[in-house]
Design brief:
The chain has 371 residues and is α/β, with parallel strands linked by helices. It contains 14 helices and 8 strands. It has helices at residues 3-13, 74-85, 103-106, 113-131, 145-156, 172-180, 206-220, 239-251, 267-282, 290-304, 307-320, 325-337, 341-354, 359-370; strands at residues 31-37, 42-49, 62-67, 94-98, 134-143, 163-167, 193-199, 225-231.
Amino acid sequence: MSRLIKIIVLSIVVIMQVNGQDFPDDFYNAEKKILKSEVLNSDRILFIYLPNDYDKDTTKTYPVHYLTDAPTTSNIYFDLLRLHSLNNKVPQSIVVGLSSDNRNYNLFPEKGAKKYLEFINKEVIPFIESNYKTNSFKALSGHSLGGNFVIYSMISRPNLFNAYIAGSPGPIETILELVDNIDSDFNISAYTYLYSSTGSLDDTDTSAFNLFKKKLSSKINDKVDFYCDIHNGENHISNIVINYQTGITKLYQDWAFVLPDKLDKPISEKLRNHYDNLESKFGYRPEISEWEVIFPTMDQLAKRGDFENAINILKYCIKIHPDSDQAYAFLARAYISMGNIDLAKENLNKSIEINPQNQFTLNLKQMLKKD
């Protein structure tokens, strides 16, 4: 199949153009922003998806995932991040869907990709970082020609994003040419992640995709955390969700804190070391959430009968969340279980001082009065 035919096939497989269409402001629960681009000399629609608790905590910041071909799959991508964040497997994140009036031009490395990447770098990213609560971590994802653009972006501007997820990149000849032209001074200055995949029934020949994997691996060696898969039985469309799902979960495979079967040091030290490693890898300090991390870990320790470490992690919680009325309340409950009523009352009073309406605390106080 000629390169021209492949481009045509890729362009009609999924309808991804949004120019001239009137999307409502709540399309897929996304904020719709019109960005007047001087680089592209035209208006561009951004679809911005915010975490559910975005407005609850004014101090919390979020990583940003930029996604090509919005809004076709941007709602799916955001839902994958949101669902995995419910059990703290991935961080809550902002997703920015990038629209295109002519994806066959804007996303194609030999045509308009250079200018489109300049648009993202000089206009989209500054706009997002100026108007939303972002941290330093940025990812770029795309499928099909969008996958091509993702790989092109990593090769041409290797330090613009921290992570790249490229699904079913094609035409594969273009990618092979990009890889062949990687300079010897290709420089990655911080942690970088790349995940790419295709389906065994995809438009891309699997032998060509394996060649891409082999060539790129030899060029980037230990500079990039690189994963590459062929998903058996999947085609160009079915690989969209599988690629994004796998790309996201592999990126954050060590995100969640897992309580060891046996503790060789205090739990607070284990927890702190885990988040030190995350900060070193991702370039920002993730929040150690009370309800998503600390209290579930405390519950596991209490079920083990390890009250010493349950108390240890609650004290650590109070150290990093000094206004946590619930941490004081749980600490009081632990002291009641150990028979230390004086310390229990002391922590109950601190809990009520912070939040007089904490029903759990009030119930504990009432229980102590009856005793």
